Amino acid sequence: MLNAACVCYKSGMTRRTPDARSAAEKAFKAVTAPKPSELPPKPPSLPGAKGTVSLRIDRDVLDFFQQDGPGWQDRINAALRQAAGKS
């Protein structure tokens, strides 16, 4: 008789389908996701501002730009601007 009670109890239970779970997750993400208008605005870029980077350059290329002395970083920057079509 105990088995019959367990069967009746189990048959009366409803199970969640995978669709219900994915629908709930989708609804949760929609509510908690930041809206594009809530994102902080990007700071305006300053004209002529330069960023610091670490760049690995072949030794012979570096020697070429450094052979004329100070200003070699500006010369590399000018060559990169020309290569990027920004001059």
Please supply descriptive tags for the structure shown above.
87 residues, mainly alpha, 4 helices, elongated
Task: Show the helix and strand layout.
Layout: H1 2-12, H2 18-32, H3 59-66, H4 72-83
Give a structural overview.
This protein has 87 residues and is an all-alpha fold. It has a domain at 57-65 and 72-87. It is built from four helices and no strands. It has helices at residues 2-12, 18-32, 59-66, 72-83. The radius of gyration is 32 Å and the shape is elongated. The model has no long low-confidence stretch (mean pLDDT 80).
Strand content: under 5%
As a whole number of angstroms, the C-alpha radius of gyration is 32 Å
Percent of residues in helices comes to 40-55%
Uncertain parts? none
CA(first)-CA(last) distance:
89 Å
Average per-residue pLDDT, rounded, comes to 80
Which structural class best describes the helix and strand composition? mainly alpha
For the sheet with most strands, the description reads: none
Backbone shape: elongated
Q: Helix segment count?
A: 4
Number-wise, the strands total: 0
Secondary-structure element pattern, one letter each:
HHHH
Quick summary:
Helices cover 53% and strands 0% of the residues.
